[in-house]
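Lab notebook, bench 4. The sequencing result for the construct came back, and we need a structural model before the next group meeting so we can plan mutations. Quick request posted to the team channel:

Model the 3D structure of this chain.
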Amino acid sequence: MPRLLLVLLIFFGAVAHAETAERTQVADPYIEFHTGPGRGYPIFHVVERGQWIEILKRHTDWFKVRSEQGKEGWVSRAQLERTLTEAGAEKTFRDVLVEDYLARRIEFGFSYGTFNRSDPIMTGFAGYRFTENLGLELSVGQSSGEFSSTRLIYASVVSQPAPDWVVSPYLSIGLGQFRNTPKSSLVGAIETNVDMATAAIGARYFLTRRFFVRADLRDHVALVNTNRTESYLEWSAGIGFFF
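Done. Here's the predicted structure in token form:
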């Protein structure tokens, strides 16, 4: 487990500096730059077919872009969908779903799975993305087994090395609190309330402009004392929304 955490930390440091703006090529005879995100704003510049533009950010159905000459303006989603990606393929609705996600910062969701191989677990999570690749997530999980119940509260740093992929992988590491409460029928059992470390690998898929599904494998390590740790595996899948 310590080696896994070290590898993930090194990886996070590398991807945090790997962000680049998406570039797309104009396929129509020209594309119009507006001064603001809406048709009521005047057109002040046009970019001709074959030239490249950079996508900077999004506001509803309008995208702020930059031309090769450094001009910045707003382009409608309808026009942007008719441009070409760097691979030479037309932008698809799936591309636009991903761009919706990249433009948003806050997400919430719930997941359900198995904890410690057989016990059911339900988890709620809320996250904030600082960049396209790096974010922070707070999770609260509750598992109820035959002999005890477990509550997990933890914060994780989440890295998405390829956030624009249709199926986007992610890695996370975090710290939190592990609380295991034995059932009252167990005589002499002691409640455990200790710190824990957690690491996960998973993937997400975008369903609509606001919803996504995700699945992951997570390893929770309870730090029982200085000489003893206990590891609990969690498999889960869930749905979330972002805005």
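The chain has two domains: 22-103, 105-242.
Will bring this to the meeting.
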